[in-house]
From TrEMBL, chains A, B, C, D:
<dbReference type="Pfam" id="PF01842">
    <property type="entry name" value="ACT"/>
</dbReference>
<dbReference type="GO" id="GO:0008864">
    <property type="term" value="F:formyltetrahydrofolate deformylase activity"/>
</dbReference>
<dbReference type="InterPro" id="IPR041729">
    <property type="entry name" value="Formyl-FH4-Hydrolase_C"/>
</dbReference>
<dbReference type="InterPro" id="IPR045865">
    <property type="entry name" value="ACT-like_dom_sf"/>
</dbReference>
<comment type="similarity">
    <text>Belongs to the PurU family.</text>
</comment>
<keyword id="KW-0378">Hydrolase</keyword>
<dbReference type="InterPro" id="IPR044074">
    <property type="entry name" value="PurU_ACT"/>
</dbReference>
<keyword id="KW-0554">One-carbon metabolism</keyword>
<dbReference type="GO" id="GO:0006189">
    <property type="term" value="P:'de novo' IMP biosynthetic process"/>
</dbReference>
<protein>
    <recommendedName>
        <fullName>Formyltetrahydrofolate deformylase</fullName>
        <ecNumber>3.5.1.10</ecNumber>
    </recommendedName>
</protein>
<comment type="function">
    <text>Catalyzes the hydrolysis of 10-formyltetrahydrofolate (formyl-FH4) to formate and tetrahydrofolate (FH4).</text>
</comment>
<dbReference type="GO" id="GO:0006730">
    <property type="term" value="P:one-carbon metabolic process"/>
</dbReference>
<comment type="pathway">
    <text>Purine metabolism; IMP biosynthesis via de novo pathway; formate from 10-formyl-5,6,7,8-tetrahydrofolate: step 1/1.</text>
</comment>
<feature type="active site">
    <location>
        <position position="231"/>
    </location>
</feature>
<dbReference type="InterPro" id="IPR036477">
    <property type="entry name" value="Formyl_transf_N_sf"/>
</dbReference>
<keyword id="KW-0658">Purine biosynthesis</keyword>
<dbReference type="InterPro" id="IPR002376">
    <property type="entry name" value="Formyl_transf_N"/>
</dbReference>
């Protein structure tokens, strides 16, 4: 017998699987059997990877247990990878920063004032300059210094925090330190970085100086998942800003801050709303 | 018994109906029963109008007759308004122009070189200056002069052409003549106009002169369905271009041509790909 | 005898006058006589208004007194309106807010981290919710409640603050109160407002609700000088953001915050860098 | 004695030289002595290269000879590199194409309808498919086949055409052939290429396939001067277009055509209006 609550919950279900007929019908059937009313849904079949992706928002009075049981029963037939969550539930997020404040300020502000569905459970920094800002926004601040000798120790501290605080998402908000391959692997798909260039242009250090030297007419920023392969992780969002010859490198840096925080905020929002699905080196973004 | 062809067809089905549980399941079920494999699908429920919208692309070996029969059987249960077409089939299109060439040139060029799925069955103009361009692109040209006295006659000629040529879409590509209310009603949902302003700014005549006088920093264009209410039809697409103080009215006109043709081309493409659904005064665009 | 300092100062000189031959030569000559080296300069003659506009950045060891004396001697010949300032000097700015935090946060953050050349000497609000944010950024906060009966009194308080604090620029950062005609006139050319629509679309109240009802595909914001004629002051900057059918009014409000703060920040920067000159109802922006 | 015509000519003068005080004054003085009225002017000093750049539009009744004589007399004092032209004079342009029509169509259309100040004196192609389009626009078409063995011969033919036709600008409008180093050097500063990527991303072959594989969220195009160093010439203009996961490589190619022609048309316009000055590997664009 199926237990239900009196009030419907707004669920978001995402899934991917090898593409084959009948998936949508099976999933829609499962949801209909649980009194679900689909409010928003998107599907996409990638002809290159042969994978099918689906994101569906549905209101239903069914319990989580009932839905999970039903999905688990369906999963083997289609070889589903899936995720079920309450729509709009704030994702527990840890932000790593160094000394640049713009991304932290932007995420914290949007969380507070623009309904960005994250819960900032910790700010971790190898410096202390952003502690007052974290305090102002009520985000617990952890100073974890990093030197060549203490890097392993610092990463262990980070992993401990991730575990203790049930962190679901780590955001590298201009953290400026390279994570070890091992850490990248352990947190794969859970770490978003903002790179201050329009990747794959200007990989590596000092991208704005490179952009200035090359005389580009647009500068950009790229939000991507972090993988072991530096600056090569799946891209979630990119944006650009027009510049001209009169801009010095430091102007590009200041202008770039705007593009960086915009691209990062969108990537974090889409991730937190379960709109981003991985398709090999690429992302599916159901906006 | 269901007849099928040996090779699957790529269908596109769009529908709208009052929002209610079970629609997606029912439609996905219908498609699954006909061996359909969904390649792309989007749904949206509008909380304001209470309507549900769906667009699905599906490959299936079922015949058109079988699909139509099945959809017709389903329609009353959900009060469906629906449309079934072969994906990518060129839509029979009549373009109305006056003397400005940029929109005609753009649509004809994109039809030929960028896979815009329209079939330009006629160009109708109250002038003859664009006849050589129509000839170059192989579009039959019809000169239908319009004066105050012959307006009714000219519209009758247009309607006759629409009927004779099985026209599915009429594009007002800077036609500069106002259609009668009666004609608008007869062709409702089948006529797309490009308005040379960012509506609802600068309705009426000489929008670029108005924009210049007001000192705006962006100029725009709006592609919309034509209704009896001038400049008030449902908007399909809008775009803008940055301008500055140094631009004279004639510069805005030239710059505006670019925005106009871009916005119009997108609107025509989305309409021809059955991505635009009407939701009262607004449009749903499943891009 | 001309006194000079040992180190050159970076000056910015702006001027406007009736257009006539010889202006640039005369100004450049004046600057050359004072050992000036022009680093950036722009001129524009408006054929409509018949006015000529010039902005020049110049390094010179001449004193302010010497430069002013020379410009004053030249001014009558060309009927010059002019302004001389040290380039990059922070402009003394008073921000008026109500309860929406995004514009205040953005301006204060950019002042601190992105070199926005303003000095936030006061935040004035008819509410107290933004007092902690003002405190965090070290901006003196003044609570000036406004009711129908106390409006005159509140405006007198504002004017007193403007005088006491040598305020050069007042920014209405989503202040939501209409200033009296008298106040507008007194502070003409010194007050920048951010309007939450792409003017002249959606003047008046609740522009996002109007935009939603009209089904526009881009929403915008407009930063403009305040004049007695509400929503009709000279436009400094506008920007837009793409939206689609799935966005509810509250989504437009949240998305709009981003456009609003971006357009406002640019307008404030250009004003503070003396890049904006008035040309009747329009602005010249020497970016 | 100075000869003047009865009607003033609108001149455009561009110059660059080592940065030093007095340049603007000297140039403005020279123009004033010839009755010049400056209508538009921009200056920029590049602190990196130490060069100063100026573009000035001026109306004057002085003859070309008189102006040239005066400029030649001034040039040694400041080590000027300069160019004087009649504003708006169409620049004699040769377009090289292969089989893709969009850039040729766009340039020819804008020349005819949007006041692009070029005179299309020849279209050169290694194929014949675009001959009818060249004919339609009245552009003399030259079929110059290129094979590995005939490349030197083909380039000689091109150079001969450039000479015979007094060609001032060569546009590689998706020509798809690499010019020899020698040719690049001979025509340095006179050849504009449109590259179908957002350089420096995706240099080399098949940039859209590379962009698709990398999963970028914006595709772009770059118009640049051609130098011996392939894809490394000074950038004049860049633009981008948003794409998403659902776009196949062929969609990117079609979408990219729009960005390519837009970026190329702007670069050609700015070059033809003498708004682009070379500053080492970078360009100054006085828009």
């Amino acid at each position: 017998m199926s237990h239900t609550s009196d009030f419907p919950t707004h669920w978001v279900l995402t899934l991917s699987c090898p593409d084959r007929p009948g998936i949508v019908h099976a999933v829609a059937g499962l949801l209909a059997e649980h009194g679900g009313n689909i409010t928003e849904s998107q599907q996409f079949g990638d002809p290159d990877s042969g994978l099918f992706f689906m994101r569906v928002q549905v209101t239903s009075t069914a319990t989580r247990t009932d839905l999970v049981t039903a999905i688990e029963a369906l999963a083997p037939r289609f070889d589903l990878r899936w995720h079920l969550d309450v729509a709009g539930r704030p994702v527990r997020t840890l932000v790593m920063v160094s000394t640049a404040a713009h991304c932290l300020n932007d995420l914290a502000f949007r969380q507070r004032s623009e309904g960005l569905p994250i819960d900032l459970v910790a700010a971790v920094s190898n410096h202390t300059v952003l502690e007052p800002m974290a305090d102002f926004y009520g985000v617990p601040f952890h100073h974890v210094p990093v030197t060549k000798d203490t890097k392993a120790q610092a990463e262990a501290r980070l992993l401990a925090l991730v575990e203790e605080l049930d962190v679901e998402l780590v955001v590298l908000a201009r953290y400026m330190q390279i994570l070890s391959d091992d850490l990248c692997r352990r947190l794969e798909g859970k770490v978003i970085n903002i790179h201050h260039s329009f990747l794959p242009s200007f990989k590596g250090a000092r991208p704005y100086a490179q952009a200035h030297a090359r005389g580009v007419k647009l500068i950009g920023a790229t939000a991507h998942y972090v993988t072991g392969d530096l600056d090569e992780g799946p891209i979630i969002e990119q944006d650009v800003e027009r510049v001209d010859h009169s801009r010095a490198v430091e102007d590009l840096v200041a202008l770039g801050q705007d593009v960086e925080r915009r691209a990062l905020a969108r990537a974090v929002r889409w991730h937190a709303e379960h709109r981003v699905l991985l398709d090999g080196r690429r992302t599916i973004v159901f906006r």
